[in-house]
Amino acid sequence: MKCVDDFRLRFGNRELVPIVIGGMGVDISTAELALEAARLGGIGHISDAMLPTVTDRRYKTKFVSDKQKQYKLNIKQADKSIVQFDLAQVAEATRLHVSKTMEAKRGEGMIFVNCMEKLTMNSPRETLRVRLNEALDAGIDGITLSAGLHLGSFEMMKDNRRFRDAKLGIIVSSLRALILFLRKTSRLDRLPDFIVVEGPLAGGHLGFGMDWAKYDLHTIIAEILAHLKAEQLDIPVIAAGGIFTGTDAVGFLEQGSAAVQVATRFTVAKECGIPEKVQQEYFKATEDQMVVNTTSPTGYPMRMISTSPSIGSGIMPNCEAYGYLLDGNGCCAYIDAYNKVVAENPDEKKIAVYEKTCLCTHMRNYDCWTCGHYTYRLKDTTHRNEDGTYQILSAEHIFRDYQFSRDNQVALPPKK
Ligand SMILES: Cc1cc2nc3c(=O)[nH]c(=O)nc-3n(C[C@H](O)[C@H](O)[C@H](O)COP(=O)(O)O)c2cc1C
After folding, report:
1. Residue nearest (by alpha carbon) to ligand 1 atom 6
2. Which of 37, 204, 244, 394 has a 20 to 30 A CA-CA distance from 400?
3. What's the pTM value of the predicted model, to 2 decimals?
């Protein structure tokens, strides 16, 4: 029986361990986690979601309070169209996070940034253009385009001096989405360097409707591999979503994927950004608590633990400070849902909003417990401490377990 270490991901003349740790915003896939993946010879992701907020916390910038001060007179207004990001600050935040991460990189692996198109920031094209190009200029090894079709994203980078040397790829959940993307990029004579195919069991936002359970990752990958072969396109395919053991990964590598992208197992690593108290909630979660709902204002279904504090929270929209999900017209589905409940309950001081959630604030505060479907199995990957809590793992342990385990085994960490 084979293990993941019997395979390699080939990028030109580079060979990598075929394990990618997926991007997890907002700073859940931290620089520390990504750096471990690179040190161990794989690929790690940082995320560019809400970077001005992340750099405030990490590097003591003042982007959030500056923006909040600037727009404080608008806080009570439903119309947020005037609340704009300063592009120079978005650029600076991206530069800071990417360059600091890349300076710390050791080992033979690579570090990519996950870039979500749905992070529309009240000015979708301009902010995306800045984020993509600054990441390239700051030396990122590659960019993974996510949460959107990204039909214009390659075009936005085409004049960047690194457009042809950085590794650029996209996450898709269907052959249809891939064909649309390839058709657009073919005009630039620049194919993607990799395609992540994410199935319905992944964490975060899903590229499916609420009928997600009808879909199966192996089937989607088979369709995509057949299409690439028919078109004579030699692009590595990376399987993602619900790959919980090294043996699961081998199944995808034997099918023809060049690597696997995994995330859920790493949510309980000490290098992960989720606070330890919340990591314990991930360990404790049970199968019936894995829910997919439509509370994300992005319009994509999202998987989370049903006890997530974001569900039903009726906090005031916080777009003057954050506002990362405002569309180009200053609107966000949470503002509408919130105002509707306020209008229906004029005398209530504290309201509950179930339809949508203020995703910016809750992701920033680690109160939206998004997770992959197999989160309920995390408790089987570690030891129970005497006080009933679970032992936090190291990213190295989890990475090596994926790399070397066989026969569906999950190696437990050395007991503390
Ligand atoms: C906590 C969490 C947050 C995530 N956030 C993002 C994100 O911001 N952008 C994205 O493209 N994918 C996100 N994902 C998806 C992962 O990058 C990855 O592709 C997927 O979860 C892999 O499946 P697995 O979690 O079953 O291993 C997230 C996943 C988790 C578990």
Report:
1. 24
2. 204
3. 0.98
| Probe residue for ligand 1, chosen from 215, 264, 303, 378 as the CB with the greatest number of ligand atoms within 8 Å | 264
Give the tens place of pLDDT for each residue, 349-400. 999 999 999 999 999 999 999 999 999 999 999 999 999 999 999 999 999 9
Q: Which of 160, 251, 173, 178 is nearest to 208 (CA)?
A: 173
Among 373, 397, 375, CA closest to 267: 375
Give distance in angstroms: CA of 267 to centre of ligand 1.
10
Question: Atom 17, ligand 1: which residue's CA is nearest?
Answer: 22
pLDDT tens for residues 136-161? 999 999 999 999 999 999 999 999 99
- Give the tokens for residue 347: 């005398």
29 CA to middle of ligand 1, Å? 9
CA pair distance 308, 346, nearest whole angstrom: 26
Give the list of residues 6+ apart from residue 249 with CB closer than 8 angstroms, or none.
Answer: 4, 18, 19, 239, 243, 260, 262, 402
Phi then psi dihedrals of residue 97, to 5 deg: -65, -45
Integer Cα distance of 416 and 412 in angstroms = 11
Task: Find out whether the beta carbon of 140 lies less than 6 Å from any atom of ligand 1.
Answer: no
β partners of residue 116: 146
The domain made up of 4-275+381-404 is a member of CATH 3.40.50.1820: no
Q: Is 403 exposed, middle or buried (0-12, 13-18, 19+ CB in 10 A)?
A: buried
Nearest ligand 1 atom to alpha carbon 171:
11
Buried b (16+ CB within 10 A) or exposed e, 38-71: bbbbbbbbbbbbbbbbbbbebeebebbeebbeeb
**Dist. CA 104 → ligand 1 center (Å):** 23
- Kindly tell me the burial class for residue 232, based on how many C-beta atoms sit within 10 Å of its own C-beta (0-12, 13-18, 19 or more): exposed
